[in-house]
Amino acid sequence: MDAPMRTLRPLGLGEQISQRLRIDIISGAIPDGTHLAEDNIAARFDVSRGPVRDALRQLESEGLVENRRKRLFVSFLGLPDIEELYSLRENLESMALRLAVERASAKGWDAVQRLVDTMAVAADAGDHERFDEADMEFHTSFYRLSGHRRLAEAWRPYQRTFEVLLEMSNTPDMHAAVVDHQEFLDIVRTGDADAAVRRLHNHLLKAKRHIRDVIERQADLDESVPVDVS
């Protein structure tokens, strides 16, 4: 069933449409190989074709959509793509983390600590949205603190995809996740890059297993009705 979409604002239509389509593609509501017809998508969201083109261009840059002879099709195989995304992220983030450990100042890590503190406040309030935002910013901070502009740019196209995966996974125990992130940051601040990267590996492995379980359960239930955008 197509989830309700918030009322579209005059600005940022393309970004809003790309986010809704991104969720539908990753969740399987729009299956792999589906033709994404601009006219149908424009009708679905009651917008002109301009913001639809912007949205599809963005999804193509993320690898969720591919161009076949000037027609765009969904390109997301579920679990195999999840494995690929996480392997790519681990390699990018490990490099960013090593550089950040080497280059970042204590002030830079203090800013990351404030993100963990924000996660703790969100956990106490049961605020999943705020928690997820701080969680994603925690990891994105490694790229910023790495001082490597092109590495940060390499991560940027996949950040929205991982935001959707994080939202779908719906962290079952936010307080435990806060402890996990605090311990992670404590290791990072020791300056032991090898230990930090090992912790990152275990951290991402746990996250990948959780989202894989979520996707497998969703597939087993098979209660969703594919969205018609062909």
- What is the average per-residue confidence, as pLDDT, rounded to a whole number? 91
Number of helices: 9
**Strand content range:** under 5%
Broad structural category: mainly alpha
Q: Tell me, what's the shape?
A: globular
By CATH, the topology of the largest domain is Four Helix Bundle (Hemerythrin (Met), subunit A)
CATH class of the largest domain: Mainly Alpha
Largest sheet: 2 strands, antiparallel
Strand numbers in spatial order across the main sheet: 1-2
CATH architectural type of the largest domain: Up-down Bundle
Sketch the topology as an H/E string, one letter per element: HHHEEHHHHHH
Strand tally: 2
Please give the domain count.
2
Uncertain ranges? 1-11
Distance between the termini: 16 Å
CATH superfamily of the largest domain: GntR ligand-binding domain-like
What is the helix content?
Answer: over 70%
Radius of gyration computed on alpha carbons: 19 Å
Write a concise synopsis of the structure shown:
Pfam families: FCD (PF07729), GntR (PF00392). The chain has 230 residues and is mainly alpha-helical.
Please give the structural blueprint.
Layout: H1 13-27, H2 38-45, H3 49-61, E1 65-68, E2 71-74, H4 79-103, H5 106-125, H6 128-146, H7 149-169, H8 174-189, H9 193-221
Task: Please give a structural write-up.
By secondary structure, the chain is mainly alpha-helical. The chain folds into two domains: 13-76, Orthogonal Bundle (Arc Repressor Mutant, subunit A); 79-218, GntR ligand-binding domain-like (Four Helix Bundle (Hemerythrin (Met), subunit A), Up-down Bundle). Helices cover 72% and strands 3% of the residues. The chain is built from nine helices and two strands. The protein has helices spanning 13-27, 38-45, 49-61, 79-103, 106-125, 128-146, 149-169, 174-189, 193-221; strands at 65-68, 71-74. The chain has a two-stranded antiparallel ribbon. Helix 4 packs antiparallel against helix 9 (193-221) and helix 5 packs antiparallel against helix 8. The radius of gyration is 19 Å and the shape is globular.
